[in-house]
Amino acid sequence: MSNRESGSVRDSVISGTSRFSSLLSPAGSSQTSTFAIPQPQPSLPPLPANQKRTSVIYDRPVTKSRGAEVSLGAWAFLFAEIVQYTQKQVSGISEFEKRLSILGYRVGARLLELLPLRDYLYPVSSLRSPPPPTRTLRLLPILTYIHSTLYRYLFGRPADSLERSTENDDEYMIGDDDMVITRGVEVPKEMSDLSCAALVAGIVEAVMDGAGFPSRVTAHSVPSPQHPRRTVILIKLDPEVLAREAALGK
C-alpha cells in the first residue's frame, strides 16, 4: 500500500473534473441423472398446520440471495463503528483514509476470487452458463468489471459513471452520485477533506492489483448542487500498465 497525498490529489480531482470524458453511463443450470440414491429422511416433529418449515441457508441459490442477507441499517451501524474505532487510532486525515483503505483492500482481495467463482458455479441465467473465469490483459474490461459487476454486487447497482482524463492517460475515475456507505456519516467541518469512501477505494485497489493492473486508488468527495454526496474513486495506473496497453495496441 502506498501513502496517499490526499491534499494535492484531491485538489487536482476537484479542479479538473471537467477534464474527464465519460466512457460509461448508468443505465443455476439444470442437470439430469440416470438413477437416484435413496436418502434417509430425518425424523422431524410435525409442524402445526399454519406454520411452514424454513429452508436452510446453505440450500438457497447464491445469486437469488445477493443483497438480501444484510440490511442497510445493520451495515450502517457496522460501518459507523469501524469509522469511530479508526478515528481513535489515528492523528490525521491522511492516516485515517489509509487505515480505511487497508480494511477495504483485505475485502477486495477476497472478492476478486469469490465473484468469478460464484458466477461460474451459480450462473445468473439458467438459459446459459458463463465461461470459466479467465484473466484479461486489457484495461477497459477490468474497469468495466469494477464499474458494473463488482459495484452491483456491493451496492445493488452499477456505478454512475466511468471516466478517463483527457490530459493524463494514467488517470480514470469511477463516479458515485450517492454512495451507500456514506449516507449515515456526518463529517465535521474541521475534517471536511475526509472521505470515508476510502474503504471502497481500497476494495477497488485490491481488485486492480490482483488482476494484474497495479495502481493507486483514492476516494474524494466532489459534491455538486444536484448530488451533494457525490464521491469520485480516482484510479492512477502504474507506468507498466500503460506500457502493456501500448504493446497490445489500443
Automatic annotation (TrEMBL):
Subcellular location: Endoplasmic reticulum; Golgi apparatus, cis-Golgi network
Gene Ontology terms: cellular component: endoplasmic reticulum; TRAPPI protein complex; TRAPPII protein complex; TRAPPIII protein complex
Compositional bias (Polar residues): 19-36
Region (Disordered): 19-50
Pro residues composition bias: residue spans: 39-48
UniProt subunit comment: Part of the multisubunit TRAPP (transport protein particle) complex.
Protein name: Trafficking protein particle complex subunit
Lineage of source species: Eukaryota, Fungi, Dikarya, Basidiomycota, Pucciniomycotina
